[in-house]
Amino acid sequence: MAKSFFSCIAIMAGIYLGSADAHHSFRMHYDPDRSIELQGVVAEVDLRSPHSFFFVDAPGEDGVMQRWEVEAASVVHLRRLGVHPDTFQPGDSITIDAWPNLVPNNPLIWGQAFTAADGTRYGGPPTADRADPGAQPTAGIERLAGRWLAPPPVTHPESPLPLTDAGWDAWRNYDPQLSPANTCEPISIPDLLYAPYLSSIEFREGEVFFHHEAYDITRTVPLNGESRQAEPTGVLGTVSGRIEGDTLIVKSSGYPPSAWGLGIAVHPNGSGADVPSSAQKMVVERYFIGEDDTRLVVEVTHEDPVYMREPYSGRIEFSRVSEDTPWYDYVCEVDSAERFSRDP
Question: What is the pTM of this model?
Answer without folding.
Answer: 0.85
